[in-house]
Design brief:
It comes from Vagococcus fluvialis. The protein has helices at about 35-45, 55-60, 65-75, 90-105, 120-125, 145-160; strands at about 1-10, 25-30, 45-55, 80-85, 110-115, 130-135. The protein is an alpha/beta fold. It has one domain: 3-Layer(aba) Sandwich (Rossmann fold), CATH 3.40.50.
Length: about 170
């Protein structure tokens, strides 16, 4: 079974709202937040979320090198097969964090995927550098399908499979 790490911001990880946007990087060897919904979807693709890494999105934007070093170091140490950054929905700071981290993981040879809605400004900046799965904004229709697509695309990357048959779910 391939090992997946989930990257979340402070809100999605259940660590509070904007008052914790400066939360330092941390993690748990468990599926947190949306990871609970994603876990059985990953299992159907012979993958498992073995850890959730998180930090405040504002903290990341102020200290990207530190967070990238810690998260990439964790992924290498625990031989993570692929990383899912998000779901960031329409939130600009989390979208920027997700896309930049996905790009950093890829640069270090760790397959990665980001996920966000069309309203997220990070798409325009990173869509040519990062695999980004489409999803609705918070409260939008199609969230369950987008979660299935996140699991499918990330699993394909973990298994080093082609994404040619899933381009309709990517930006």
């Amino acid at each position: 079974m391939k090992k997946i790490a989930l990257i979340l911001n402070h809100v999605q990880a259940g660590m509070g709202s904007d008052e914790n946007a400066h939360l330092a990087p941390s993690g748990k060897k468990a599926a947190l937040g949306p990871g609970e919904t994603l876990k059985p979807m990953f299992h159907s693709h012979d993958c498992d979320i073995v850890a959730t890494l998180f930090c405040g999105d504002q903290y990341y934007l102020e200290h990207p090198e530190e967070v990238e070093k810690k998260f990439i170091g964790f992924a290498k140490k625990f031989e993570i097969d692929a990383v899912l950054c998000g779901p960031a929905m329409q939130y600009p700071n989390f979208g920027e964090m997700s896309a930049r981290l996905a790009k950093a993981f890829e640069k270090h040879g760790i397959p990665s995927v980001a996920s966000m809605s069309i309203e997220n400004p990070a798409i325009e900046t990173y869509k040519s550098d990062v695999t980004i799965v489409k999803m609705p904004k918070k409260g939008g229709i199609g969230l369950q399908d987008s979660f299935k697509n996140m699991a499918l695309v990330t699993s394909k990357k973990a298994h080093a499979e082609s994404l040619d048959d899933v381009t309709n779910v990517l930006f």
